[in-house]
Amino acid sequence: MLEIKHLTKRYGRNEAVLQGLDLHVEGNSVVAIVGASGAGKSTLLRCINRLVEPSSGSIKLNGHELVNLKGGDLRRARRKIGMVFQGFNLLDRLTVMENVLAGRLGYLSLYQAVMRRYPPADIERAFTLMERVGIAHYANKRADELSGGERQRVGVVRALMQEPDVLLADEPTASLDPRTSEQIMVLLQSLASELSLPVLINIHNVTQAKAYTERIVGLRHGKMIFDGVPADFNQDALDAIYGGIESPDESSGDGDAEQGALP
């Protein structure tokens, strides 16, 4: 279970990016975080994995407090927080297998990490997961030779290699074409069910949020103003989140948001 209470993030003397946010996620829930640019979506995810330091509040993962962890305790906690990035964050000169196995670095000694001495069980798990998402035949191919969708699958498998207790996805489809975007959303939805893994997806595409997640959380100016099932995410909720303007829709697949009203 991920339990967030009174989470606030403020940069200097500016208005808080997150303002006393409360959020509970458990089981195999797939939760979409939606909102206009600057609403605090990415900041929320980055506070959870401590890429951004919260100003105040509590973040607990399976009962363990994450806020204020330092050093080795923080590194160990991060092993259980998988992250999928919009820009893939792969090492292009390395093979798919090497990128995937990087998800195990937090579990290795310094010597094993430097020498890339991965236990046989890690290699076997890597092949199993790559086969599950359809990239096993690319194991020895360089990452920079893959398409965007293939690269994102590598990113998903790398995150799963951590054996995470929660998976965070920050705009995982923003750089992909429409068909590949839907494939990635279906994959995340399926993996959440198969692995009993809660997944939080920061996403601009409201249509995809309604189609592929079980719960939508809407942010505006760092405050949660909607939390419910997709069926209840109506035009009133949309107007409240986006201030009466049309919501972003990335169905063009060019990485830039188009404007499109809620269908």
Question: What this model shows, in words?
Answer:
- The structure is a single chain.
- The protein has a single domain (2-243), classed as Rossmann fold, CATH 3.40.50.
- The protein contains nine helices and twelve strands.
- The chain has helices at 41-48, 71-78, 96-101, 110-115, 120-133, 148-160, 178-195, 206-212, 235-242; strands at residues 2-9, 18-25, 30-34, 56-61, 64-65, 81-84, 166-170, 199-202, 215-220, 223-228, 248-249, 258-259.
- The chain has a six-stranded mixed beta sheet, sandwiched between helices. A four-stranded antiparallel beta sheet has the order 2-1-4-5, with helices on one face.
- β1 and β2 (18-25) form a beta hairpin.
- α5 packs across α6 and α6 (148-160) packs parallel to α7 (178-195).
- The chain is globular, with a radius of gyration of 18 Å.
- The two termini are 33 Å apart.
- This is Phosphonate transport system ATP-binding protein.
- Residues 247-257 have a biased composition (Acidic residues).
- It comes from Vreelandella subglaciescola.
